[in-house]
Each structure stands twice: as structure tokens, then as C-alpha cells.
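Figure S7 source data.
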Amino acid sequence: MPQLSGTGAVEMAGPQVIRDCSTGLPGLVREVTERDPEREAVRSGGDSLNYRRLEAWSDAIARVLRTDAPEGLPVVVAVPRSNALLAALLGVLKAGLPYLPVDPADPPVRLAGVLETAGSRVALVSAPTEPVLAGHGLRTVEVESLRPAGDASVLPLDPLPVVPDEQPVYVLFTSGSTGAPKGVVLPSLALCNRLLWMRDTYAVGPEDRILQKTPVTFDVSGWELWLPLIAGATCVFLPPEEHRDPARVADAVQEHRITVCHFVPSMLREFLRGPGAARCTSLRHVFCSGEALPVAVARDFATSLPARLHNLYGPTEAAIDVTHWTCPERAADIDRILIGQPVDNCVLGVFDRDGVLVAAGEEGELRIGGMPLALGYLNRQDLTDQAFVPAGADASVPTWYRTGDRVRLADGGLEYLGRVDDQVKIRGQRIEPQEVEHHLGSHREVAAGTVVAARIGDDVELVAWIQPAEPTAEVPEGLPRRLREHLADRVPPAYVPTRFLIVPELPLSSSGKRDRKQLRQRAEEQLNVARTPVASRPADGGRPLLQRLMRERSGRTAASAEEEDPGALASIWYEVLPQAAEGRAEARFVSLGGHSLLGARLAAEIHDRLGVSLPAGYFLRNDPTLAELHAAVALADRPTDLPGTPTDAAHASPEQRRMSPLSGMPADVERPVLVAMDTEAGAR
Ligand code: AMP
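C-alpha cells for the predicted adenosine monophosphate complex:
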């Protein structure tokens, strides 16, 4: 339980546990290897490695890095989710260097900025990612080529070096409010402490199989990758791309009898909606983190699965998570969600605006101290000094990290209340709106842009309010598309707003600042009206093409659900993307506000109602129109046992189709409509 300081002010200390981490993560893994070298360490597709083989492979990588990689500089890792990834990361740590995972699909400008800040010279790559990193001037080492051939059991393993507690283990870049991402550097002891706490708290052991599905550029991957290896368990890689597809996740859990896995809450909601979730009975522990866990999702979980659901909380600036809370087992007992108690060797404080600890029950900003803390931001002492502040002479820790999170100590643990600043979370991804605004502002057609996260239906979406550079009564044709393309060249996909709202002038608050709160509320009002359910609309788009393709298909004799009910696919499209009803029939998925979870929802509905499986990531990758979706469905593989029958949803009412653009402007139709926004209305 938390220890309150004498004044009743909220300072909480997790259990103090002394553990030997002097050989770092490689030493913790080696203990397992020495105990049970033949045990399966990692599995990916049909490829499996035991601990011995994984160690031998990572030893070979470490040997190359010891001679080729400059001391102290992070080694870039650009290897897709696979056994080679884990060998690469372990090899980097064995060489006494931090790893810097990058997504080669990131826009080249952003990738270049990250690489320049890090100063890295060497990248571990796979054959497909090699050209990208070589293109940035890095010396590349292809990891697969270092895989030891033959019988690894006869090879002696290399001795392990001593690892100082402060030795950096990874650098993870996160969104920066200055417009450029910033690299968080985590020390060895922080990560070892976090992993050992998790292993011991949830009794993770050799019988466990942990699903690795979080992209390695996010800190959650830290425990998904390393927890199995320090516990003697098996790390099971979900194939690249499939983490966005709840049906694939459910399949993988069942196929590999996964016992432990993680979801951001918005993904957990999608997962629980799918028919596969209830069959995931091998799960023992499911962990949520990254954004607030809604009560409704936790209740759904409790009624769907026998596993325990845990809510973890933490920023990248501390080792993955610093608090934990386990949801009650029975749905009826879940009436609130807490972030709970500090993990081992972690100290937390809740402070008011003046930097004074508040009393229990009062709201304040959460600060983190103790073992979990990162060392700071790579080569950004200025940002480090702002966020990691001296704790003062009478404090129990030397440094606090100011999280920017509003919390209060409730009965039973900490409760998360929101942010003190503008940072937002979109499907678990941390985004500083200023980073997006910085790039919007560099577009010549934009006078000003403000980005907010608005709750639209069940989802939180990134919405950009734009004041065009040229004052005009008409919105320049295609402006949202041009802005989207502009951003896509500069920031990761999740940072690109799904909706653009164009106004003659952005409202300012009484103090002359951007009025984000008002713009968020206004966006929610407008876009939620635009979502008034439109169950279906006559399916016209793409019919001739679809029929032609269906006729052309050879070897197909049985009539499919879609062939029997040509409106079924359109029904699904308009149900999941209600704003499509306002746009032109040929509007594309992304321009209708489509994002990864909506893509997953469409894919799940199409699978359940039409029996057609589209490839993982189809919607984001192909950005189809309804007509193109018809064509893809017509060509897709179909299981012979078509599940379910298509629903016969009602057609939209004339009122729904006549929805006024000014009362509920669909954010991003091909020709966006100028929203008249007067300051009086804005001041409401
Ligand atoms: P990141 O650095 O990407 O891990 O994001 C950290 C931020 O995500 C925190 O500062 C919180 O704002 C938010 N966050 C993480 N976990 C939770 C949680 N369990 N509940 C609410 N917010 C969370």
C-alpha cells in the first residue's frame, strides 16, 4: 500500500526490493540459458529457436558490433518482427550499446532527423530494410547472415561483460512539442527492475507464452520481448502488420496457446467485439496501458474471458510502466478504473501548480522518481532540464520526472484524470499536437492550424482545424488531400489527422491564445452530428465493376453472400463509416476518416457477414473506395463454409441523406465545405 508522508501529502513508494542486475539483461537471459538451454525461447511463423541458439546468434551479432559500432552511440535496429529481431536486440545489449529501433516506413525526413539526433553509424537490418538505412548513410549489417549454421549446442557462448546500472539500453523517440521528436534514453537498471517486478508479481514462468505484437519503437515492446526471456518462457511473434487486426490476434492467441499479452484499450475493445476473443481461453493475464481504460471495456473483458485484466500506467520517460492495478474479476464489481500502486523501487508524488505535494483525494500533477527513471532526452539537455527536475533537499529521491498527467489518490490507488498540457493519445500513440501543427504551418496554403483530439462515436480521432492562407469564401478544392499528403511526408501515419475542418478564422481565447478546448468541443459537436447513423444507402458505387469481376472469376460456382445480397457490402461500409453517406460515392477510406481500428472493424464485419477475409492492413494500405472494396471482396479468398448471413439493413432516410453540411459537416469530403464559425458561437 502507498506510504503517505507525515503531512498526509501524497508521496507513494513502491516496495523496495534489492536485486542483482550487475550483468544486465544479457545476464538475466544467460541464467535461463544455463538452466535450460533447449527450452524454446522464441517463435515466429514456422521458425523456432531455443535459448542456446538465440544466444549463439546474438553473440555473433555482438562480436561484429564490438569491432564496427562506435562506443556509446546507439545501434539502429530496423528488423521486422521475427526471431532475427530478438537476436539483433540481444546482440546490441551484449555489445554494451543501446538499441534505437526505427520504423523504415516512417517518412524519410523524420527518419533522417532521428538518425541525426542520435548520431548512429551502424544499423542492424533485414534484406528488405537494408536499402532504406543504407540510403541514410549508415553502415548496415544484415542480421540473418550472422545466424550460426549447424548445431549451436556445440558452440561455447561468449562471456558476458559487467553492465553498469546507468548503462543506456535503449533510445525510443517520442513526439516532441517543439516540432521534432525527442529520444528517451533508458538505463539498464531501470529496465531490469521493471522486468523482474513483472516476472515476480504475475508469476511468469517457463510455461508461459507471451505474444509480441507491439511495434518495437514503443516501450511496451520492452516487456513483450524481454519478460519471456528472463522468465524462461517463450516469446511468440505476431507477423508484421497483424497487430492492427483483432481477428489475427485472436487466431494467434489460440494457435500458440498464448498466456500473456497486451492491448491498448481501444484495440482491446475491438478485440472483444470480434467472435474470436471468447475462444482465447489460454490467456492468463492481459495487460492494458497507453491510454485510459474505459469501465465498459473492462466489464466486457470480465464477461468474455476468464483471464485477469491489469491496467498499467507509465510514460516512455520511465521504464515502461510505473503503476499497476488489477481489475475486479466480476463485471458487476467494476465501477471505476484506477492506475493503482507504484511498482518496485518507484516513488511517486502528486503536486499542485506551485510544486507542493497535495493531500490524498486532491488532484495534482504526477511526478515519478526512483529506479524507473530514464536518463533524459538524447542530446537535448534543454528538454531534459525542463522535464527532469531536482526534487529538493527534503525529498526521498534526487529527481522527479514531471509527467504532465493529472491524477488523484483515491481509495485503492491512483486515479488518472487527464493531462495538464495539450498532449493527446490516439489509439495509444502519444502525439504532441504542436508537432503536427508545426508541419501544417509549413504548408503554403495554411495560415494557421490547430490540432485537437476529439471523441467521435467510440473513437478518439485527430482533427485539424485549418485557417487557409487565402481568405476566400470557397475552400480551395482538394485542400484536405494536399495537407494529408504534406503531413504523410513528414510524420508517422497516426499523426495525420483523420478530419480536416476549414474555417475562415481560428478562434482565440480571451488571452489571445489558440482555444483548443473550444475547438475540441466544437469538433465533437460537428462530427458527432455527422455520424448520425446511416444504416445503409443504395449500393451503386462499383456495381458494374463488381459484376464484371465476378463474372470473370473462374472456378467459382457457389453464390456468395455478397452475390446474393449486393447491398450487404455497402451496408457495412456505411455503418462503419457513416460520413460516407455525405460524401461522393468514390470517396476513399482515409478521406472518410478511416484509420487502423476502423479498417479492422470493416474487415471483421466483412469476414463475419460475408465470409471474406481481406489481407491484414488492407484498408490503410490500399485506401479503397467502395467500388474498389467491392472488387477486392469479389477477388478475395473465401472459406467454403460461409459464416452468417448478410444483414438487411434499412436504407437511409431522406432526412439523413439531406444532412446539412453546415450543421454537421463531414470532415473530409472530397470538396470540404467552408464552416462558418463566428466568435460568438465559439464563445459559448
Ligand atoms: P507513452 O510515453 O507513449 O508511453 O505515453 C505515456 C502517456 O500515456 C502517459 O503520460 C499517460 O498520459 C498515458 N497513459 C499511459 N498509460 C495510461 C493508463 N493506464 N491510463 C491512462 N493514461 C495512460
